[in-house]
Specification:
Layout lengths: L2 H11 L1 H6 L4 H5 L3 H8 L28 E4 L9 E3 L9 E3 L2 E3 L7 E3 L6 E8 L14 E6 L3 E6 L32 E9 L2 E3 L2 E4 L1 E7 L2 E9 L20 E2 L7 E9 L2
Antiparallel strand pairs: 1-15, 2-5, 3-4, 4-15, 5-14, 6-9, 6-15, 7-8, 7-14, 9-12, 10-11, 12-13
This protein binds magnesium ion.
Magnesium ion binds next to strand 7 and strand 8.
């Protein structure tokens, strides 16, 4: 069993213990920022730090295969496939020559279409970092599978943070196997193979699993998804059906291009 799986398993086994360490949501909402950050720190995993691997510089976008649904191409009409989560209306993020950039403060965006099992290709780019911003504050975004399970997007090039929150992590669950970041300003590539959890009524029959390649390098190898992505507290396991893909506005001008998906179910 590798470190990655040991960490996931230990978090899973500790789930009931962890749950008892966290007050109800209403109490958390009434806390100060400092108190909330102290609670959030309980699910940060700081070791092991994934080794850094060097990858070739970014090349041209990988063309979508013929059976893929293009969610973001060079055509601005592609934005019709996305909606603001806050307003349910058209997205406010900027689109220029096929590059979609977060408009900080406008909120997350999600696809109109719902997905279950998928192969997903996504390219993203962190802008030049503000030296005053480090860790989770350095160009943070994320891709949420089925609106609930975040594969972290973060400028993790020479930017230490808790490894279960760095680029390629299943956020607050599983550390990536390696750090395959290109330097900031270059396009990064994610290829994600996702098997959705199965439910019968409210009962979870099987967990979700995800495989992630970052710039062509394996960082999640058929990783079990423990439940929903939570900044504070343990993952939850609500029953659900197919659901949208979501991109996160974490207040940074992260850009995206060439997003396409193949349905596997
Ligand atoms: Mg994020």
């Amino acid at each position: 069993m590798n470190n990655n799986k040991i960490l996931s398993l230990s978090l899973l086994l500790c789930g009931s213990v962890l749950a008892s360490e966290f007050p109800p949501a209403a109490e958390i909402a009434a806390m100060t920022d400092q108190q909330r950050h102290a609670l959030a720190a309980k699910t940060e995993v700081w070791t092991p730090v994934p080794p850094v691997v060097t990858v070739a510089p970014a090349s041209a976008p990988l063309a979508a295969p013929s059976d893929a649904l293009v969610l973001l191409g060079a055509n601005s009409a592609d934005l019709a496939q996305w909606r603001s989560v806050n307003s349910g209306k058209a997205v406010e993020w900027s689109l220029q020559e096929g590059e979609l950039t977060v408009k900080p403060g406008s909120g997350d965006i999600q696809t109109l279409e719902k997905f279950c099992d998928i192969q997903l290709h996504l390219e993203w780019r962190a802008p030049k970092p503000d030296p005053a911003k480090t860790g989770q504050l350095r160009n943070n975004s994320g891709i949420f599978l089925q609106d609930k399970y975040e594969i972290q997007i973060l400028d993790s090039y020479q930017n230490p943070t808790y490894p279960n929150g760095q680029a390629g992590s299943v956020y607050k669950q599983t550390v990536p196997l390696v750090n395959a970041m290109r330097p900031d300003g270059q396009w990064q590539q994610y290829d994600i193979i996702y098997r959705a959890p199965r439910f019968e009524g409210h009962k979870r029959l099987s967990a979700g699993f995800v495989t992630v390649l970052h710039n062509g390098v394996l960082v999640q190898n058929h990783t079990e998804i423990l439940g929903t992505t939570e900044w504070i507290g343990p993952p939850q396991q609500p029953a659900h059906g197919c659901a949208p893909l979501k991109l996160q506005d974490h207040g940074d001008q992260v850009s995206f291009r060439n997003i396409w998906v193949r349905k596997l179910d």
